[in-house]
């Protein structure tokens, strides 16, 4: 790094940076950079040079009002070839330094940029080199330690009232075990990272990530004032933060600022600014008119690509330089939705009909970074499309809503893409009754099956299909249809095989636990007014919750995979529940298969532990009942003693009459009596 001779130039300006004034440095100037190797110009060209510098650095951050200072030699009235720039935040200053150091203004002027705070350190460098002292290694906390829990439990986080709490899900004890609790930990909501390493909290100043098994120490902060939303990349390398500001004029669009940070270092890699209209195309939902998440990350854990959908444009960025691939966006007229494969750098996109139906709608698959179109399907008379990727990236289901010939109504069907097969064949699936409305669709995780809720409320049908059966490996087959179910949502277990057919909202929390392998119902239950359902990452347990959208029965219930209620926790003003995700297993498929075959060998140990816990709980129950009995007997003895002490007082109050009657003075008698309840007269005819 080139060092600017700040000492000599300070002397020219009459600034004395002696030891007496060293306290000036202690206050910190982390949001100021020094830009050297600027052209030396006379007073007439000062404003032009200042405008050029502002134009360059306004793209890299927000410069404070009067935040650019370009010193002038008082004798010659010429600039001194450097300037100071003050940004709103230290992160913006650091980003500007990194992005503009070495910037070539022209052949003779290449910027040398340093942080203002660096000069204190650089001016104290000794003349002679000394080898650095070796620092003792201090290991940090193992952020994956929670995965080594001896009881193989999972963690979950909840928010209720002002408190945020992390628990172990301890089903043996029939209760959650507290791990960490903190009031006002976040000012909005909390969110786990995709692999469960971090917990992110939101604050007025920005976002923060926390980690660990039980201590939850703060690992990093990310400066973004009034942040509203956050999103992680799949491999947890990057954090995207979102802020929108309402305009003073209601006719104007909201202003949006999005930042992308390196999770570990806290460094801002890039920011994006614009109106909410620029970020409002596509996406499942959002705030202030902008869709969220704005950026869609490519599948896999390398976090190599992310894409943004704009009007007639798909912008795909690579994270090595955080710039557009090939330095240009993809032009796709009228594109309204994009979706990445969960495992590969394949982007699916949907373009609706154009020209009044003269140009058909289409779904296309594009390989990134080559931007080569792998497959395209034209679709006619289309009202809408929705794309669903299977979690292993083997299949893509496209739900197509089409107009009837009269254009007065619509019907639905599916286009099924087999991504891993040669030439990506496409299969069309129509329901037995193609006029049935499709209410919900869900792929089996890591499997070949999917479920569809279709028909009319309040009792639609649920059908199960398979992309691969023993009899037919290349065509979709229907497995079964369950008639008249009170369900409007589907929740597959993360390991497949089991699914919950749920009736939320208007169905008041109806639950049916279904085994798809056996095509049989394991249990039916109800969690009245349930608003949320979420499986734990292992597929052993499932949580249902009633959040504060309802005023009553706030809290959550934990169930086994087969529908047995294990315990229920009530919490006033209950806002959120989220299981801590687990990273993928390091075991190979062969090793997992071997463990499954020898499961009985491993299960003996855990069965013995379960028996010990059961005996312990029984003993605890006995001790509890014994303690209650002893407490009752003690209370009775106290009142008997008090009653005896007050005997004379009662006798005096009754003028010497003894009012207490001993038990042996009672005479017990048994009295029998008969009561006629009813009389029925019946005529029996002789045969």
Automatic annotation (TrEMBL):
Location relative to the cell: Cytoplasm
InterPro entries per the UniProt record, alphabetical: EIF3B, eIF3B_RRM, Nucleotide-bd_a/b_plait_sf, RBD_domain_sf, RRM_dom, TIF_beta_prop-like, WD40/YVTN_repeat-like_dom_sf
Domain RRM: 31-118
Matches recorded under SUPFAM superfamilies: DPP6 N-terminal domain-like, RNA-binding domain, RBD
GO cellular component: eukaryotic 43S preinitiation complex; eukaryotic 48S preinitiation complex; eukaryotic translation initiation factor 3 complex
Molecular functions (GO terms): RNA binding; translation initiation factor activity; translation initiation factor binding
Function: RNA-binding component of the eukaryotic translation initiation factor 3 (eIF-3) complex, which is involved in protein synthesis of a specialized repertoire of mRNAs and, together with other initiation factors, stimulates binding of mRNA and methionyl-tRNAi to the 40S ribosome. The eIF-3 complex specifically targets and initiates translation of a subset of mRNAs involved in cell proliferation.
HAMAP family for the chain: eIF3b
Protein name: Eukaryotic translation initiation factor 3 subunit B
């Amino acid at each position: 790094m080139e060092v600017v001779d700040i000492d000599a130039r300070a002397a020219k300006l009459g600034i004395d940076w002696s030891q007496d004034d060293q306290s000036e440095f202690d206050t910190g100037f982390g949001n100021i950079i020094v830009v050297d190797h600027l052209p030396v110009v006379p007073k007439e060209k000062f404003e032009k040079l200042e405008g050029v510098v502002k134009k360059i650095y306004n793209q890299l951050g927000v410069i404070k009002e009067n935040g650019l200072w370009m010193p002038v030699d008082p004798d010659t009235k010429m600039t001194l070839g450097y300037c100071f720039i003050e940004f709103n935040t230290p992160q913006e200053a650091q980003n500007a330094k990194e992005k503009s150091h070495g910037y070539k203004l022209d052949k003779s002027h290449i910027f040398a940029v340093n942080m203002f705070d660096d000069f204190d350190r650089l001016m104290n460098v000794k003349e002679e080199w000394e080898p650095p002292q070796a620092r003792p290694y201090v290991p940090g906390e193992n952020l994956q330690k929670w995965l080594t829990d001896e009881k193989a439990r999972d963690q979950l986080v909840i928010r209720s009232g002002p408190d945020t709490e992390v628990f172990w899900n301890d089903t043996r004890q029939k209760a959650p075990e507290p791990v960490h609790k903190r009031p006002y930990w976040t000012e909005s909501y909390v969110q786990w990272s995709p692999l469960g390493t971090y917990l992110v909290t939101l604050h007025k100043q920005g976002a923060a990530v926390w980690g660990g098994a039980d201590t939850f120490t703060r690992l990093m902060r990310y400066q973004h004032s009034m942040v509203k939303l956050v999103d992680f990349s799949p491999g947890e390398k990057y954090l995207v933060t979102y802020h929108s500001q309402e305009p003073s004029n209601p006719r104007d669009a909201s202003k949006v600022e999005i930042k992308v940070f390196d999770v570990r270092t806290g460094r801002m890699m890039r920011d994006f600014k614009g109106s909410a209209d620029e970020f409002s195309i596509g996406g499942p939902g959002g705030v202030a008119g902008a869709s969220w998440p704005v950026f869609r990350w490519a599948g896999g854990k390398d976090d190599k690509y992310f894409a943004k959908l704009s009007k007639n444009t798909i912008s795909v960025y690579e994270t090595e330089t955080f710039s557009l691939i090939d330095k240009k966006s993809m032009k796709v007229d009228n594109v309204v939705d994009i979706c990445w494969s969960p495992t590969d750098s394949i982007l699916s996109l949907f373009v609706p009909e154009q020209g009044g139906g003269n140009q058909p709608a289409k779904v296309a698959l594009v390989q990134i970074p080559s931007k080569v179109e792998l497959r395209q399907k034209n679709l006619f008379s289309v009202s809408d499309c929705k794309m669903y990727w299977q979690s292993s990236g083997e299949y893509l289901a496209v739900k197509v809503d089409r107009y009837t010939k009269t254009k007065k109504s619509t019907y639905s069907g599916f286009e099924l893409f087999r991504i891993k097969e040669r030439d990506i064949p496409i299969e069309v699936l129509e329901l037995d009754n193609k006029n049935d409305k499709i209410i919900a669709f869900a792929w089996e995780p890591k499997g070949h099956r999917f479920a569809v809720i279709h028909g009319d409320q309040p009792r639609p049908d649920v059908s199960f299909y398979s992309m691969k059966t023993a009899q037919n490996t290349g065509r979709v087959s229907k497995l079964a249809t369950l008639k008249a179910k009170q369900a409007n949502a589907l929740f597959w277990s993360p390991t497949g095989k089991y699914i919950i057919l749920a009736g939320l909202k208007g169905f008041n929390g109806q639950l049916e636990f279904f085994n798809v392998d056996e095509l049989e119902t394991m249990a039916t239950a109800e969690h009245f007014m349930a608003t949320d359902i979420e499986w734990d990452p292992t597929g052993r347990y499932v949580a249902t919750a009633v959040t504060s959208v309802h005023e009553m029965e706030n809290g959550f219930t934990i169930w086994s995979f087969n529908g047995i209620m294990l315990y229920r926790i009530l919490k006033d003003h209950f806002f959120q529940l989220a299981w801590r995700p687990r990273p993928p297993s390091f075991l190979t498929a062969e090793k997992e298969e071997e463990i499954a075959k020898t499961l009985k060998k491993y299960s003996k140990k855990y069965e013995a532990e379960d028996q010990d816990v059961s005996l312990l709980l029984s003993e605890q129950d006995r001790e509890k009942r014994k303690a209650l009995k002893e407490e009752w007997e003690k209370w009775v003895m106290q009142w008997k003693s008090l009653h005896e002490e007050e005997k004379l007082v009662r006798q005096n109050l009754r003028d010497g009459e003894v009012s207490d009657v001993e038990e042996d003075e009672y005479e017990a008698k048994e009295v029998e009596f008969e009561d006629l309840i009813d009389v029925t007269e019946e005529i029996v005819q002789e045969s």
